[in-house]
Amino acid sequence: MATQSTASCTGSTLLQPISDIINLPLDQVNFVAGQLFALLMAVWFRLYLHPSKTSPFVRHVVATLLGFYLALFCFGWYSLHFLVQSGLSYSVIVFAGLEHMHKYCFIVTLGYLIVCQITRVYVFDYGMYSADFTGPMMVITQKITSLAFEIHDGKRNMTASFPRESHQRMPSLLEYLSYNCNFMGILAGPTCAYNDYMAFIEGTCYQPRHQENANGKENGKHKQSEPSPKGDVISKLCTCAISLAIYLSLCKLIPVERSAEEDFINNTPFYLQVVYLYLAMLALRPKYYFVWTLADAINNAAGFGFNGYNKDGSPRWDLISNLRILDIEFATSFKLFLDNWNIQTSLWLKRVCYERCPINPTAATFLLSAMWHGVYPGYYLTFLTGIGMTMAARAVRYNVRPHFQVSDTYKRIYDVITWAWTQVAISYTVVPFVLLAVGPSLKFYRSWYFGLHLLCLLVVLALPVRSRRREAKDQQESTQTNDCSQKDKTT
Q1: 373 is catalytic
Q2: For residue 247, what are the contacts with CB-CB under 8 A and spacing of at least 6?
Q3: Is 342 a known active-site residue?
Q4: 63 and 88 co-located in one domain
Q5: 408-435 vs 451-462: helix axis angle to the nearest 10?
Q6: Which phi and psi angles does 309 have, rounded to 5°?
Q7: Catalytic residue from among 373, 399, 403, 453
Q8: Measured distance CA(259)–CA(266) in Å, rounded
Q9: Which domain holds residue 285?
């Protein structure tokens, strides 16, 4: 296994002996080693290149150079794609007019990513699902397009939905490369707003948030000192260790692929197939918990990610966190699961697509998510299924949930039922995302007689559905009406 991965690994072969010993692909070993190196550099960066000790220019240069070093170590010459993608998009932002700059940048950046994904999958290495150079390009694509929309909205004063993210100044090339390719996020992200990153580099990310959240003595002890990320970093590293141990222990014992195997389908009772699928997905998720939590810890260790204070005065370091594990595992609706999974990507999809698409924003958002993830057919099967699941879940919540809000007992019953259905629905939806190919995915769905697809279709046809935009508009109108009534009473 490790020997075969050497040929497909485009980065350094320095850690090949470790890859052979632990029997893991070399590219995955390089990725983990690179992230651990980034963690050490993050601590050094915060202590010795603190904004009070050095200039933003030096911090930008060091963060960028360390990022390029990690990219070369993990991906070799393929990391040049990061520079090409950033350079093309920067040229578009500089030379295109303000009116359409964000659209051109979106098309060029996403198009370049898709071309790279097509060549990687269908030309060079179809079927390899591991650490590859298009992973960082996906995060860079988010950053580039987010910044283009932020500049466009800032100069057009379109800041109603995302006022903090709007930006009116064109970044320099160094600032642009530092934002896209810094060592803290080059390998696994997460995406962040450009203004937040610049506040971190310039050392202005603490005081404004202190002022926003200060309400009396709960924050008084923090007025004279910069909050320390030490506790949060240690906690997140412990989460990483537990997640990695669970994944390595269970991933080979209950693989998702077995759900689509002929003998398993023919010889296993259906209820056990459902239980097995849930457990297989439960064992798969810790891999993502490990990657995203480690990335969050790296940023926090560098001093990035401060998000104000809790009510007890303790600092919050979740500004760019990508998941909430407990909210994921105990989600009682399809939407709650998605809202707490890959959070920064969800925010990006909302900023660049959902809030701007005039026709069927839900379908458009799922389609963009599929295109961004890659060109494997399984991605499209998953996200097309996700459209139906989302619409059905929305219809159930709107029509059924109010009948269970009459007492605490009914609420608990509703939560238990919806939790079970959510876990089954998520597992059912995500199977093609894991299997990647059309054949095994359709074999799995046929073994379930496309049951949840048909159920979603019946629910959507039978129950009225209101869009999120309509619900928000009605809520706003209701609030305005109540305010007017209150004013009339006062008068």
Answers
A1: yes
A2: 283, 284, 286, 287, 290
A3: yes
A4: yes
A5: 130
A6: -125, 150
A7: 373
A8: 11
A9: 228-321
Same domain, 329 and 314: no
Helix axes 134-156, 173-181, angle to 10 degrees: 130
Domain tally for the chain? 3
Please tell me the distance from the alpha carbon of residue 179 to that of residue 143, in angstroms, as a whole number: 8
The catalytically annotated residue of 310, 342, 399, 482 is 342
Query: How is residue 102 written in tokens?
Result: 């964000």
In the DSSP assignment, the letter for residue 309 is: B
489 within some domain: no
Q: How many CB atoms lie within 10 A of CB 284?
A: 18
SS3 341: strand
169-217 pLDDT per residue, tens: 789 999 999 999 999 999 998 999 999 999 999 998 876 454 444 444 4
Helices 194-202 and 134-156 cross at an angle (nearest 10°) of: 90
The pTM (predicted TM-score) of the whole model is: 0.88
Q: pLDDT of 221-278, one tens digit each? A: 444 478 999 999 999 999 999 999 999 999 889 999 999 999 999 999 999 999 999 9
Q: Within this chain, do residues 255 and 134 fall inside the same structural domain, yes or no?
A: no
Q: Which two structure tokens, joined as six digits, stand for 258? A: 């077995």
Say which residue the tokens 């093309």 belong to: 88
The number of beta carbons lying within 10 Å of the beta carbon of residue 401 is 14
